[in-house]
Write a structure and sequence with these properties.
320 residues, mainly beta, Jelly Rolls, seven-stranded mixed β-sheet, 4 helices
Length: 320
């Protein structure tokens, strides 16, 4: 039986990857830090640290960025859901990042559909973090970058191979024999990507923290799911739990559950072994194990719960 601490990734113990993606040397993006928390994620770096290798059918990661630092335009093949752990962020989308945008603050959730380019920027005044859930065990085979991101990276010594691995000229690395550079999307392929306005996007794919908190007063607030605030089935459900949402009694589940602390401190148990988790901590529980959770020392405490579902690991909502 696993010790409870082996099922917890502490925020203070997170090990950053500063060369995870193709824009790691590009000015404006070169100061970001990526965290691979549960599962391999979609990092292009062979040097990344994976905190918990075993996946529950989805991946958990995070990104930390100083003010004015940008995560460049990219597409995922499976669902990508973020909640804002701290700070103030601008999310934007479209082939040039100009189709639409939304400003998010601590606790807000955004569910970004597959098939459109997206990026995000820390517009606050201090280093801040977002936490992400990626659908599927393998996250759909990596990232598709906007052509302009690939070109900018070449100017700063980074080339992405067609095998999905980065090669850094600053470290005297070159593409191995038989490995070609990753191809950019063609103009024809780019023309097929839908343009989505802010007015169409935000009501369908954004949930505000205070709205979630209000709905969690007597039961968990279903944020993403078949009947959730964001009506989608991306391969997992996302719920917000606050102090009155659940009984503190122990329970079991036939589903793998992952808890990510948003605010406050939480008492958790795993087969009667106790621990306390705090903001930014991630707690993963395998099926059939006895678990409990209750807020500690704070009336304003909230925690996100993610559960795998049997639907596909991509959004079921299509844009016209």
């Amino acid at each position: 039986m696993k010790n409870i601490e082996t099922c917890i990734v502490r925020h203070g113990d997170l090990i950053p990857d500063r060369s995870a993606f193709i824009d790691a040397h590009t000015p404006g993006s070169n100061l970001k830090e990526n965290y691979t928390i549960i599962g391999d994620g979609v990092s292009e770096s062979a040097d990344r640290h994976v905190h918990i290798k075993e996946t529950p059918g989805f991946n958990i990661g995070g990104a930390g960025q100083p003010p004015k630092c940008t995560n460049s335009l990219h597409i995922h093949r499976t669902a990508e859901v973020f909640f804002i752990l701290s700070g103030r962020w601008r999310f934007f989308w479209g082939n040039n990042g100009k189709d639409g945008e939304v400003i998010l603050e601590a606790g807000d959730v955004i569910n970004i559909p597959t098939g459109i380019f997206r990026g995000f920027e820390n517009i606050g005044t201090e280093y801040s973090m977002v936490m992400g859930v990626l659908g599927g065990d393998d996250s759909g085979g990596g990232v598709i970058w906007a052509p302009q991101v690939i070109e900018a990276a070449k100017d700063h010594g980074l080339i992405l191979g067609e095998n999905g691995v980065l090669f850094d000229a600053k470290k005297n690395q070159t593409l191995p024999e038989g490995i070609n550079p990753m191809k950019s999307l063609t103009d024809e392929e780019l023309s097929k990507i839908p343009e989505v306005s802010t007015a169409d996007f935000v009501p369908r794919f954004v949930a505000r923290y205070l709205d979630m908190l209000a709905l969690s007063d007597h039961q968990p607030a279903l944020v993403i799911g078949d009947k959730g605030m964001i009506h989608d089935q991306p391969g997992f459900t996302l719920e917000l739990i606050s102090k009155n949402s659940l009984s503190s009694d122990s329970y079991t589940s036939d589903q793998h559950e992952v808890f990510m602390v948003m605010k406050g401190y939480w008492n958790v148990t795993l087969n009667k072994e106790k621990a306390v988790i705090s903001p930014g901590d991630v707690f993963t529980v395998a099926p059939e194990l006895e678990r409990s959770l209750s807020p500690s020392r704070s009336n304003h405490a909230s925690i996100f719960r993610v559960r795998k579902t049997s639907d596909k690991a991509g959004p079921t909502i299509d844009f016209p």
